[in-house]
């Protein structure tokens, strides 16, 4: 059964609404790119507003970690950042899950929305705005927006018949479904629905959308997702229903309280209503003046059509600017399937953070999953990566260096880092890698940005091994003086790593900064300029060394048990965090 509109009824009922104008209101869309903003500009970025049908899983946390890393990087560049996240609380899916949990919808929303906030706190997510779509100030803005679109002649009433996926909250095209009308994302059959609804005249925006994409191809990122969007548009845009007659849990349609506004039409406006201040007048123009258009919508690839087709058309209809960029990342998968609440194959983020800490979780997913592509999770890989990079390459280098400085220089720097590095090629290497990290952060290649920072750590480790300052100290005289300079150089490298890694592992970076003798306030006021060589000065006293990242070890007893078991009954031992750092090498001791 194909989704179809009863057009004769549409024609009759459109008499109730204003006549469609022959051409849509001209959109004032922005064509600037992320890189072309000047420093004073506000950087507004959003995560999707998460459905509160169930508490967050690692897939929801992934977008938010990435968004937080980007927000922190933009703050380092000196931008005023408005980082928006929140929860999407209306619609059939939420009402059904509230009922299944024996709660009334609003109680259910309060509870689950709070679990998102709690997780964000545990993951060190520093958002600026948290919007809930059940907030009355959001409702007021949705209604005002609806009225504008209606006044522009883009809303009419008609019958609709089609196949609906409740988990996607979307009518599906028969062509895109699997056997037995199963939704390809949720692997569950869609249900046949017939409703009398209000429709948004999306088809009117086909040409303007084509123009937006051809004039500003960077609007959709990564570029391979742009092709997908262009194909949808080319295949012909059909009007979509923006109200529900059978769903009570939603914002009533203005002038027709028998219908509620479609959850997507409602939720997308959260990106604008989030901008309002509690003490400000709650209207669309005020909200828009406080930061619209958004610089970047960060979303998963499954909701690209809503953000790159429906949303821009809705904004054009209301005469508002389009966001500057929509970036659709890939999925975290388990055994190749999208991890998700509906499929029940999720990874528990609360457990992961409690076991391994926020830095490890943030670092692993940003470093391991190329931003834009899918990525599979395995605990073995997780432990291997964070141990090798955070505990060894970074943590151990700092620990060894501070140990040598304490033993030989009373934990005090003997010379300015700029003087220490005169004629030392490591400084140039670090500068190049810092630049590589910056350009990759800017282009949202977060994994490559991480890689560049790690390369700085590798370069520091190689320098330490080549110079072997522990040997030089033993030789005394000018050799010992050179060794003392080497330690200053490596600690400056560590300081630069701390700044450059702070968007991704803020807690780890703070620990490094503190051990280098800086205060929390000094850390909190760092900017990207602080990646320049030369902040560590003669006389600066280092703090007591302690591991900045504790190695994760399989518990020894469990490992022994495992060894005793017959081969095929062996289970993996449980990972534990061990409060010890890699030992110094024998030669250094
Ligand atoms: N409520 C809508 C968004 C409205 S935005 C105005 C929604 N919510 S959701 O909770 O289902 O999904 C939120 C985001 O989480 C989406 O971007 C989705 O892609 C992302 N993820 C959900 N599962 C995911 C993975 N397994 N991996 C990565 N991201 C995934 O859609």
From TrEMBL:
* Comp. bias (Basic and acidic residues): 557-566
Gene Ontology BP term (one): methionyl-tRNA aminoacylation
What are the annotated GO cellular component locations? mitochondrion
Q: Which residues form the Methionyl/Leucyl tRNA synthetase domain?
A: 177-402
The record's EC number reads 6.1.1.10
Sorted alphabetically, the keyword list is: Aminoacyl-tRNA synthetase, ATP-binding, Ligase, Nucleotide-binding, Protein biosynthesis
- Does the record's keyword annotation contain Aminoacyl-tRNA synthetase? yes
The protein here is known as methionine--tRNA ligase
Its lineage reads:
Eukaryota, Viridiplantae, Streptophyta, Embryophyta, Tracheophyta
Which gene name does the record give? Answer: BnaC08g26210D
């Amino acid at each position: 059964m194909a989704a179809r509109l009863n057009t004769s009824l549409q024609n009759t009922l459109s008499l109730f609404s204003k006549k469609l104008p022959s051409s849509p209101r001209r959109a004032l869309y922005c064509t600037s790119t992320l890189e072309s903003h000047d420093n004073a500009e506000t950087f507004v970025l959003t995560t999707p507003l998460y459905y509160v049908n169930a508490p967050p899983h690692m897939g929801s946390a992934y977008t938010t970690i990435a968004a937080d890393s980007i927000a922190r990087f933009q703050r380092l560049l000196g931008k005023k950042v408005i980082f928006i996240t929140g929860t999407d609380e209306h619609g059939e899916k939420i009402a059904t899950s509230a009922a299944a949990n024996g709660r009334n919808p609003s109680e259910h929303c309060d509870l689950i929305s709070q679990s998102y906030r709690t997780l964000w706190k545990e993951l060190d997510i520093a958002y600026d705005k948290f919007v809930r779509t059940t907030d009355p100030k959001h409702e007021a803005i949705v209604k005002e927006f609806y009225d504008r679109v209606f006044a522009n002649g883009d809303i009419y009433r008609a019958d609709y018949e089609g196949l609906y996926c409740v988990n996607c909250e979307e009518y599906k095209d028969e062509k895109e479904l699997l056997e037995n009308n199963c939704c390809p994302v949720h692997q569950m059959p869609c249900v046949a629905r017939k409703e009398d609804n209000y429709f948004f005249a999306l088809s009117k925006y086909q040409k303007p959308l084509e123009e937006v994409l051809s004039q500003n191809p960077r609007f959709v990122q990564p570029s391979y997702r742009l092709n997908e969007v262009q194909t949808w548009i080319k295949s012909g845009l059909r009007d979509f229903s923006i109200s529900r007659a059978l769903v009570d849990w939603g914002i009533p349609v203005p002038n027709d309280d028998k219908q509620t506004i479609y959850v997507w039409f409602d939720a997308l406006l959260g990106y604008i209503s989030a901008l309002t201040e509690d003490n400000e007048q709650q209207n669309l123009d005020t909200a828009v003046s406080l930061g619209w258009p958004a610089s970047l919508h960060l979303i998963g690839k499954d909701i690209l059509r809503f953000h790159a087709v429906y949303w821009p058309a809705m904004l054009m209809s209301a005469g508002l600017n389009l966001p500057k960029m929509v970036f659709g990342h890939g999925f975290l998968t388990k055994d190749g399937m999208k991890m998700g609440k509906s499929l029940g194959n999720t990874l528990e983020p609360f457990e992961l953070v409690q076991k391994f800490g926020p830095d490890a979780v943030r670092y692993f997913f940003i470093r391991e999953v190329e931003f834009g592509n899918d990525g599979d999770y395995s605990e073995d890989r997780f432990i291997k990566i964070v141990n090798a990079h955070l505990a060894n390459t970074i943590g151990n280098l700092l620990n060894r260096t501070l140990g040598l400085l304490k033993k030989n220089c009373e934990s005090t720097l003997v010379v300015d880092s700029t003087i220490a590095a005169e004629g030392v090629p490591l400084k140039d290497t670090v500068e190049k890698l810092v630049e590589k990290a910056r350009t990759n952060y800017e282009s949202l290649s977060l994994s490559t940005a991480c890689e560049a920072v790690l390369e700085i750590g590798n370069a520091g480790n190689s320098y330490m091994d080549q110079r072997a300052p522990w040997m030089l100290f033993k030789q005394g005289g000018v050799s010992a003086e050179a060794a003392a300079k080497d330690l200053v150089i490596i600690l400056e490298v560590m300081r630069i790593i701390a700044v450059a890694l702070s968007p991704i592992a803020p807690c780890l970076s703070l620990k490094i900064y503190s051990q280098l003798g800086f205060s929390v306030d000094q850390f909190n006021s760092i900017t990207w300029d602080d990646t320049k060589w030369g902040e560590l000065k003669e006389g600066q006293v280092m703090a007591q060394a302690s591991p900045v990242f504790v190695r994760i070890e399989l518990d020894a007893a469990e490992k022994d048990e495992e060894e005793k078991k017959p081969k095929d009954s062996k289970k993996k031992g449980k990972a534990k965090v061990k409060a010890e750092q890699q030992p110094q090498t024998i030669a250094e001791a």
